């Protein structure tokens, strides 16, 4: 292996950290602190927007729930990147794939339940009518 | 880079078709030819799988809550019982706690025992503050007769938020264990991997709380 090869693989190793991993080589405390501070700043910003959004009338009222969910997903992304250190580096491929699968299951469970139960509620007479029929 | 027959190959790509010499080139762990990935990577991956399964379990509680949130049985609805100021303080506590946990992992990396213990103590104090605020909210609801047995909505609410609270309680016990173990055993490699898992757990709890305060509290109080 030549010197250039060694240098290349060192550089790869630097960008090659698992979630929560604090970068085994080459990273200083200052850069780690900066990552956490950026993450904290973005998370605070998104949280404040989420809490303030319903009371301000900046967003068309029927769109507020969708906007809140979008901000929540954005904040989860911020936490994943800046606090759990999920990257797309080679050693993170497995973690990213597992996350993708987890997200699929979460959407199936929540979306499927809400979808099916809404249909059931739609096709059922209101509960007070059911009670009246039983009497 | 050459493009022939619709395939793209790169002369530096050790896995390009027809290339069998893997002995040189890329040596980063996880590439397959740099040896097995380090224990730290594998431990992180395994714990990440556990966290994802935990999140899938939470998604079932979220689905239950979404389905039952209108089943108030004549009792109070989300709009009547939620105090958003209290929720805001809880959110601030948990986010600050997550940040303090990040500081602790930086201190661990720098092997500064005092800073590590201080950051962990701060993480613990903020976590306890979150838990006390949540318990006070629960106690207030139960005292008003709005306990989990009042309606299906309140059952789903107490299950979902209570399950997160139980995770935080478990995390706080784990946190104290980590402080004691690092104090007693020092910055050993196995302790560092154990702390990596704890940090992942603590940050993941904050991710679940983001979904929780949005779906339960903000959507409940606003719509």
Description of the structure:
The complex is a heterodimer of chains A (about 140) and B (about 220). By secondary structure, chain A is mostly helical. Chain A folds into two domains: about 1-85; about 90-135. Chain A has helices at about 5-15, 30-50, 65-85, 95-125, 125-135. The longest helix of chain A has about 30 residues, at about 95-125. Chain A starts with a helix and ends with a helix. With about 220 residues, chain B is mainly alpha-helical. Chain B has two domains: about 1-35, no CATH class; about 40-220, Up-down Bundle (Four Helix Bundle (Hemerythrin (Met), subunit A)), CATH 1.20.120.80. Helices cover about 70% and strands about 5% of the residues of chain B. Chain B has helices at about 40-70, 80, 85-110, 115-145, 150-185, 190-220, and strands spanning about 1-5, 5-10. In chain B, helix 1 (about 40-70) packs parallel to helix 6 (about 190-220), helix 3 runs antiparallel to helix 6 and helix 5 packs antiparallel against helix 6. Classes of the chains: A mainly alpha (about 140), B mainly alpha (about 220). The interface between A and B is large, with 55 and 60 residues.
Q: Report how far apart the termini of chain B are.
A: 56 Å
**Quaternary structure classification:** heterodimer
Total count of strands of chain B: 2
Quick one: CATH class of the largest domain in chain B? Answer: Mainly Alpha
Largest interface: A-B, 55 and 60 residues
Please name the CATH topology of the largest domain in chain B. Four Helix Bundle (Hemerythrin (Met), subunit A)
What order do the SSEs of chain A take from the amino end to the carboxyl end, as H and E? HHHHH
Number of domains of chain B: 2
* Domain unit count of chain A: 2
